Amino acid sequence: MVNHGMVLLCIRTLGDIPCRLLRAISRTLTNVNHELRWCQYPFQRHIYILPRACGWIQCRHLPTLALRPLRAVEFFQGTLDSTDEIETARVFDTTLRDGEQSPGTSFSYDDKREIARILDEMGTHVIEAGFPVNSEAEFEAVRDIASSTDTTTCGLARVVDGDIEAALDSGVEMVHVFVSTSDVQIEDSMHSSREDVVEQAITAVERVVETGTTCMFSPMDATRTDEAFLTTVIEAVSEAGTDWINIPDTCGVATPRRFYDLIEKVCQHTDARIDVHTHDDFGLATANALAGIEAGADQAQVSVNSIGERAGNAAYEEYVMAIESVYQADTGIDTTRITELSQVVADRSGVPVPSNKPIVGSNAFSHESGIHAAGVIENSDTFEPGVMTPEMVGARRRLVLGKHTGTHSVRERLVETGFDPTETEVRAVTRRVKDYGAEKRRVTVSDLERFAEEEGVAELPEKEEVRA
Ligand SMILES: [Zn+2]
Do 308 and 405 share a domain, yes or no? Predict the structure, then answer.
C-alpha cells in the first residue's frame, strides 16, 4: 500500500514485531535516507516507512491519525541553525577502562569480553579495553579483545617504559599515553616538574610512534592546566608524531562555552586529530563533549551508563543519541542495541541505572500523567522528542498506570488486555487506578484486570483477524 510516496508495511501479529526484522528494516532505511516510524493499535502493529522529506503519514485503521504531519525538521531547525555543522562524530568507549574505575566496580575477564563484543558489533570506533600493565588478567583481557574484535582496541599507559611496553605487547592497535600537566597534579600527585613532564611525554609518544601503533596522548587535567604550558605540551607531542591528542576535563570543571574555546585553541596548535574526555562532576559531561565536537574534535570518550571515576564520564547513550537525533549527524553506531548494552553493563558493573536516566532509564519513555499519555496515544511526538523514539534505542514506550493516569491510558490498557469497556466503566476503573496509585503502590496488569472484573467490564468478543 502506497500513500504520498510512502511505503506502508502492515504486519499482522498479536505479539511483538520480531526485533531482528525491525532492526534490519531500520538499518536498510537509514541507508537509503528513509525514516521508520511505527504505531500500535490493539491487536495490530503497523510499520510506516517514508522518505525523510515526506511530510505526512497516514493510517487507514486510525482515522484520527490520518495525514498527521511529521514535524521533526521544524522542531529542530532552530537547534541545527545554532550549531556548527557536524557531519560525523566518532565514539571512543572507555567503559572497560575509566568505567571500571567506578568505585566498587571490577569487571572479570568474561565481563570485559562480553561488553567489548557488543560494543564492537554496534560499530563503536575505539574500545579502550583496559590498562595492560595493571595485572596479568587485565593484560590477557586487553590482548584477547584486541585479537577478537574488528574495531580499534586501545590500551592505556602512563608515560613510563613498563606501561608502554605492556600495552604494545598486548597487541592493541592504539596506545593511549597520559601524563598530568596541571601544577597541582604535577606537584602533589606526580612529585615532578613541568620540564620532566614534557620530556617524558615526548619520549613516550616517540616510542609508540616508532612501532607503527596509533598513538593518543592525553595531558591529564588539561582544563586546570596553565594555558601556555598546555600549548607547549601539545606542540611538543605533535612534533613527536602523535596521531591523536585527547583533551581531558579530568575533574569535571569545564563548562560548554569554555570547553569549546579550549578545543578551538588546541586545534590551532596541532595537526593531530582531537578527542575529548569529559567528567560529570557538575552534570555537564555530555554537554561538554558535544561542545568539543562542535569546536572541531573528531571523537569523544564516553562510557555506557556514564559509569567512571566519581560521578562518571559522558554517557555513551546520551552522546550517540544527541549526535544522531539533535544534530542529525551520523555516528555509524547501531543505536537499536543501546538498551541491551546498558542492561549488560549495569548487570556486570553492579551499578544500577536510575529510572530517570536519559535514554536508558526505565522512565525514559514512560508516561503516566493523563495529559501526556493521552497525547502520546494520539501522536508520540506530543510529549516525546519526536526525533528520538524508543524503537531507535531498542526500548519500548510504556504507559504507566498510577496516581496521574487519565481515562485514555486506562481505555487503551483495558482494550489491550482484552476488555470492551463502556465510557462509564472506563471512568470507574480510572478512579480505582488513581486511588490505588496514590498509595504509592504499583498498578500491575493483574490489578487492572481485577478492577475491570469488579466493575463488571465485559470482555472483548473473540478477536477477528484483520486483513492488511
Ligand atoms: Zn577519566
Answer: no
Rg of the chain's alpha carbons, rounded to an integer? 26
> Percentage of the chain with pLDDT > 90?
66
CA-based nearest residue to 343, from 320, 359, 330: 359
Distance 251 CA to ligand 1 centre (A): 8
Do both 63 and 94 map to the same domain?
no
Q: Are residues 101 and 30 in the same domain?
A: no
Q: With respect to residue 233, please indicate whether it lies within any of the assigned structural domains.
A: yes
**Listed residues 282, 315, 349: the one ending a domain:** 349
Kind and range of the H or E run holding 231: helix 227-239
pLDDT at 43 over 50: no
Q: How far is the CA of 388 from the centre of ligand 1 (A)?
A: 28
For the stretch 225-279, pLDDT in tens is 999 999 999 999 999 999 999 999 999 999 999 999 999 999 999 999 999 999 9
Compute the distance from residue 150 Cα to the ligand 1 centre, in Å: 25
pTM of the full structure: 0.79
Under DSSP, is residue 397 helix (H, G, I), strand (E, B) or coil?
Answer: coil
Cα–ligand 1 centroid distance for 238 (angstroms): 22
50-54, 300-304, 410-414: range with lowest mean pLDDT: 50-54
What mean pLDDT comes out for the span 297-310?
97
Centroid of ligand 1 to alpha carbon of 253 (angstroms): 12
Whether 292 is in a domain gets the answer yes
Looking at the fold, whether 99 and 8 belong to one and the same domain comes out as no
One-character DSSP codes across 279-327: B-TTS-HHHHHHHHHHTT-SEEEEBGGG-SSTT-B-BHHHHHHIIIIIS
Number of compact structural domains in the chain: 3
Tell me: do 343 and 206 sit in the same domain.
yes
Residues 6+ apart with CB under 8 A from 361: 353, 354, 355
Q: Which amino acid, one-letter code, is at 37? A: R
Q: Is residue 388 part of a domain?
A: no
Domain that holds residue 52: 1-70
Q: Mean per-residue pLDDT for 350-376?
A: 90
